[in-house]
Amino acid sequence: MKKVFIVIPTIRNLDFLKEWKKQFSDIEIIVCEDHPKKEIQIPKVGKKIYHYSWKEIDKDLGKNGWIIPRKVSGIRNYGFLKAFQMGANIIITIDDDCYPVKNHNFIEQHLQNLSISVPQRWVNTYPDSRQLYTRGMRYFNRTEQRVLVSHGLWTNILDFDGATHLQNLEFKAEFSEHFLQIIPHGAYYPMCSMNLAFDAKITPIMYFPLMGEDTKGNKWGYDRFDDIWAGIFSKKILDHLGGSVINGAPFVKHNKASDPFKNLQKEALGIEANEELWKLVDQVQLTSSSPAECYLELANKIKWPKEAYFSKDLKKAMNIWASFFKH
To answer: Whole-angstrom distance between the N-terminal and C-terminal Cα of the chain?
Structure first.
């Protein structure tokens, strides 16, 4: 039986977990509390709960604790690391404003997605979780690449940026139980961390970049692009290593807790960088053969913008992250 961990970053009450009690009954849960010390009471849910705050992070990682960002959901990085160290096979992460969809098995669908292999350069015209291929799909290329990332979607409120959300305040997304789309080889996608699962062996490439604040309370200058940029980096490496990404089911109900006006302000500085960063990543030629080695190679081969955030801080943080997995 696969060892599955759920990683949850939070700053608020975790009563939402009571809604997941049935589905998480056999799952180990890691809570990354984004406060200096543990303050939150956690309902008794799951097989076992591990609870960490800044205090535990800094004690564990010492001088390298700064690479785990604060006051941003990227604090979940520490949960990824701990799950990996505790022998996880599958790591799933959700946000604390996401709820189960009635009669829809969240865990089972993610595990199913991560158990299949899919075509590399062909795209099925009927995206379906049951792998019903349409006429003309070659038989010999249907199992070329293992799925290593399962990117789930949402009902109710989509993962909008601030500007798009403000333009679509009345829009409500609907449930589509069997929707499943393979992200094509060589293509990128906007990875969202609020409903995401991955094979633990690729944890070395799933680091969420520095956003929010550093350990001294200084702003990194960018926000709300940590999962997006992690998606760019990881997809580049997965294409090189022969792994695949699936997008679609399972769904969660997203009752968005953040303010679209504040999100718009947080995103402002990163919009221009986001338009160009994927191109810099795409230009890199990788030669390494393991996730950790590829991540280290990518960090050092990207022609980073001259800004210190990229060329100094983020590059250094990515190197340190990769070092955690090189033995």
So the answer is: 26
CB 294 within 8 A of CB 288: yes
Host H or E run for residue 4: strand 4-10
Task: Please count the other Cβ atoms lying within 10 Å of the Cβ belonging to residue 308.
Answer: 12
Report the C-alpha gap between 48 and 55 in whole angstroms.
Answer: 20
Q: Distance between CA 284 and CA 254 in Å, rounded?
A: 36
Cis before 36 (ω within 30): no
DSSP 311: I
Domains and CATH numbers, the chain: 4-268 (3.90.550)
Q: What confidence tier does 169 reach under pLDDT thresholds 50, 70, 90? A: low
DSSP letter, residue 67: G
User: What is the share, in percent, of the chain residues with pLDDT greater than 90?
Assistant: 78
**CA distances for 75 relative to 54, 178, 213, 253, angstroms:** 9, 32, 10, 22
Minimum mean pLDDT range among 142-146, 155-159, 192-196, 214-218: 155-159
pLDDT of res. 200: 98
Q: Which two tokens stand for residue 9?
A: 């970053």
**Number of helical H runs and strand E runs in the chain:** 10, 10
Whole-prediction pTM value?
Answer: 0.94
196 beta partners: 93, 151
Mind giving me the DSSP string for 228-283? HHHHHHHHHHHHHHTEEEEEEEEEEEE---S-HHHHHHHHTTHHHHHHHHHHHHHT
| Per-chain mean pLDDT for the chain | 93
Q: Over pLDDT 70: what percentage of the chain?
A: 97
Residue type, 49: I
Cis amide prior to 250 (ω within 30 degrees)? yes
- Coil vs helix vs strand at 34: coil
